[in-house]
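Table S2 (text version). Query chain:
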Amino acid sequence: MRLFVAVVPPEEVLDDLDEHLEPRRAAGEEVRWTDRHQWHVTLAFLGDVPERRLDDLAEVLARSAAKRSPLVLRLSGAGAFPSPYAARVLWAGVEQVRGDLGAVAHGIRSSASSVGAAPDGARFHPHLTLGRFGRPTEATRWIRALEGLEGPAWVAGGATLIESHLGEGRGRRPRYEVVADLPFGR
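Corresponding structure-token output:
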């Protein structure tokens, strides 16, 4: 099972983002925009996890999430990975209005590792992927076009364990399936 843990913004935040992106989507063909149902803030990418570990994994992740308080987040600004000058990914930033998303991600990652579902080693950088480039692209114009993004604040009351089914979505994109909701408990 190919799994990740994420915070999924509520519909009204996705509506606002969709509205902000609509006039920009037609501005160039080099961005392959992600579908709305794929928008999330990844806390930990776990990769391939044997199905036999799923129950233990869901249990430790739920315990980790239950130790956290709800967060207040906002989508704000934009950037690109690995750099604006050789971009492969265009993203919206995540402002932490209240709470520490990094601490939540660290707890989730540690918990997953404790049951043999070690997350990738990438440094945590809170973002929501907006689109991908087919080849490294100088993306400063896209970042400038999106830098005015400031979505509504929302209360993130938990995280979600999600399975990614590669190539099963629209245009051979991944299809996501919720495996477990992980509410924050304090």
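Notes on Table S2: Residues 14 and 179 are 21 Å apart (CA to CA). The two ends are 30 Å apart (CA to CA).
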